[in-house]
Amino acid sequence: MLLSIERRPLSIMRGEKLEGIYLSALVPEIRKLVLNSRCSQAGMSSSRTLSLHFSGGWLNLHAAPESPGIWWSEKESVTAPSSPSWEHHLDNAVVDQVVQQSSDRVIELRFRERTPYDRGGVRLIFEITGRNTNIILARNEDSRILACLRKVLSRINRYRSISPGSVYNPPPVSGIPVRNWQSPETAALLEGITEPGEICRLLEGVGPAAAQAILLYSKGPAEAVKYLGQRISSQDFQPWETPKGKLPVPIGNGKPVNEPLAPPADSEGKENLKEYRPAADDLEKLLKKKAGALRKKIRSAQLSLERLESPERLRMLGSLLLTWKHNLKKGMSQARLKDWSGKETVIPLKQSLNPAENAGRYFRRAGSIHIEQERLEKMVSDYTEELAEIQTVLHELGTLPEHKASEMLEKFSKNRDNHATEFLEFLLPGGWRCLAGRNAVQNDRLTFRKAARDDIWLHARGVAGAHVIIRRDGRPDNPSAEALEEAAGIAAAHASTSGIVPVDWTLVKFVRRQKGGGPGQVVYTREKTVFAQV
After folding, report:
1. Could you give phi then psi for residue 41, rounded to 5 degrees?
2. Where does the pLDDT of residue 11 fall: very low under 50, low under 70, confident under 90, or very high at 90 and above?
3. What is this structure's pTM?
4. Is the dihedral of CA 116, 119, 121, 123 positive or negative?
């Protein structure tokens, strides 16, 4: 039976997405081929394709986010996976079950227990979930992950992490399950829907191809969904290819899929394997991203160097203030004075200081310029040296052995993780380095792990906000009042308040964690207070 929808010209799209309801039609086909069969070899036929050899051929799971796929082939050229866990747990293991998580885009091959460590057997999980597409090997008994094609860290995905040793959690449910598609409640929810995206979000396992077919059905979306639900629930499949993609049953303009597990053409997603080098591939992506970030940092530091004030001009302003101090008084916001060439110069003043103290400010700032200049020049030099190292590795990557690429990937990944958790950093007058936490956890780590006991700690009084640290870095002198006020301004700007903000400061050694409090909650003594305007 064909559903009646508007007929459109057929043009099969390359890189099509596998939809959950279409996978439902593939599960019975996979069962026929591998159920109760022994996997004699597990290997990689491309950087993103895991291939399992059974008596009749190879089952291939292709985990490319842009063009995932499952196919059966008679021959494959494979290499050993990067982790020995794949071979250790899958070689000579017998497939006990082939299941799909409801009608979503997750298929599992469950293997019988082969060794005591298998703890009731293992399961191979193929998640075809867009950019998070992955292949995961986990124990059946406790869902402990043994290996995965792609690690997903908690800082990238807040819902779950995927890495060896962690417990596997399935992806969140993507919509109403097939068993409820024939209900009046589902029909009511479908009323008034006109966009394919709305249907994709509403129904589990439905992607763009099915959503488009549902919308074009002449009797309305509710009847189309009911029909699909009946066919899928009764396992009455007849794979069908439409202009938008593949469906489990015939709907509208298209053609039958005679071999649902046929290998793709080389031009449609199956990679030609020269050498499987996952570490080298990952290292190349990481280094290119890191090189781009370093170029931005170098440019930023160079711009800061260009914006540095002239120490000669600052000294000239200080000298003018001392020369004409008898014409000035405390509380003025600026002074209009003639320099030695007769040209009028406007000099901003700090109203809380007298003329001599304002002159001292300009002399101190002139003295600190060279410190800031040296620090920025060192940053440019360090970043340039790091960029040169990365460019050298990228140049040699083609001939770099895989084990060396793996070592370098670990090295540069650690550097990336460190940069990802960097504190906010500022440069204060006099060349003093200032750090601020981005959140409560960083505040706690900054104050109690990063900071030295004699560093200066600042925080906006009585409100939530950043911990701010002025680093001494071994210097015997103390920060100037101007540097302290600027650090107080940073603390005020990163607090949940505005206006004139009181900011307390003390030494780090007088700050301690609040008993029973959460991260970043502290009590402190021997504090002094400055005020900052936000």
Report:
1. -160, 140
2. very low
3. 0.53
4. negative
